[in-house]
Specification:
Helix 7 links the parallel strand 7 (196-204) and strand 8 (241-244). Helix 4 runs parallel beside helix 9. The protein is globular and about 50 Å long. The strands form 2 sheets. It has a 7-stranded mixed beta sheet with strand order 4-3-6-1-7-8-9, with helices on both faces. The chain has a two-stranded antiparallel ribbon with strand order 2-5. Residues 1-29 have low confidence and may be disordered. Helix content is 38%, strand content 16%. The protein starts with a helix and ends with a helix. It has 2 domains: 1-30; 33-324, Rossmann fold, CATH 3.40.50. It has 325 residues and is α/β, with parallel strands linked by helices.
Length: 325
């Protein structure tokens, strides 16, 4: 039996409706909430990895810069996509970043240069962390970096639930995150009021606490309080948290540094954090001073970009593992 004109008209209407609906679904996917990651700590979170400075007197002829590492690496696939086909540093439109430094507010699409120094000659863990989570999460990403050099957890980042005076930089950390979220529509016009979800917190700090007996003794407890307080501030009681080890200098370290390392691992191993906090060892990423740009800066991983790249890589994979749990 041949279909009637009415049946053909109805079939055509359904087909046209399905075609019209398809773009709407795509638009809906683009309007998924932005996934927000807070990256906090002291100078090594600020970022000390040298990208391309090669003055022989100050930067060891470029050894250990990102440029040098990419030219000489035995693992070229590790750096795939860091530069584009024209040799320019890749810019990730799917990963935004905001970092208020001592000099300026840096914000935009993720690339090199979102470190504590002016210009675009340094990276921190954010560089590869953002690439890792951006590659795996089907969403727009925002990294909020909030870090200052020379600050302790014991005093400067002291969380409120510990008691005593809350640290100035704990308060500033929270204020900067809230400011970044409030200004999303103005600072990232592509945001389009789609909403956001605070997805994870990364902590990379510990150097200053190493030199104070009380700070060393209380580091584990203070870190537990920090995690709980940050979660409470943003009403995310099980927010995934990644702790980067104080791994400067590699596996061999003095007892003061080892105390901080053990405290960081112990905090992450607390039973209440079993499914939501991960400790990331970083000692394997240390590189020798004579193969690094800043040979006198052991507290900054000698400015070796490979160290910061690998730290960001490990932190990113740890965060993804928590999100999959």
């Amino acid at each position: 039996m041949q279909p009637s004109i009415l049946q053909l008209a109805l079939a055509l209407s359904v087909l046209l409706l399905s075609v019209a609906v398809a773009p709407v679904c795509a638009a809906d996917r683009k309007q998924d909430p932005v996934r927000v990651f807070i990256l906090a700590g002291q100078s090594n979170m600020e970022g000390q990895g040298v990208v391309d400075l090669d003055h022989p007197e100050y930067y060891n002829g470029g050894k250990g810069t990102l440029e040098h590492v990419m030219r000489t690496t035995n693992s070229p696939t590790r750096y795939a996509g860091v530069k584009d086909a024209d040799g320019q540093w890749t810019v990730r439109e799917d990963v935004w970043i905001r970092f208020k430094t001592a000099h300026e507010l840096k914000r935009g699409n993720l690339s090199i240069g979102f470190a504590g120094y002016p210009g675009r000659h340094h990276i921190g863990p954010e560089f590869q962390f953002g690439r890792i989570v951006g590659d795996q999460l089907d969403a727009q990403i925002l990294l909020i970096k909030t870090a200052w050099g020379g600050k302790s957890l014991f005093r400067d980042f002291r969380p409120p639930s510990v008691g005593g005076e809350t640290g100035t930089f704990y308060r500033q950390m929270i204020a900067e995150v809230r400011e970044a979220l409030a200004r999303l529509p103005d600072e990232f016009p592509q945001y389009d009021n789609r909403g956001y979800e605070i997805t994870g917190f990364v902590w990379f700090q510990g150097w200053n606490d190493m030199f104070d007996e009380q700070a060393r003794a209380q580091y584990e407890t203070n870190l537990v309080h920090l995690i709980n307080d940050v979660r409470a501030e943003f009403e995310r009681p099980n927010m995934p948290v990644v702790i980067g080890e104080l791994g400067n200098g590699g596996p061999q370290a003095g007892e003061s540094m080892m105390t901080i390392r053990r405290a960081q691992a112990a905090a992450a191993a607390r039973p209440e954090f079993a499914e939501s906090v991960r400790f990331v060892k970083t000692t394997a990423f240390a590189r020798p001073a004579d193969q690094s740009p800043n040979q006198g800066h052991g507290h900054h991983w000698f400015g070796n970009a490979e160290s910061y790249f690998l730290i960001g890589d490990a932190l990113g994979h740890a965060m993804l593992a928590l999100l999959d749990d």
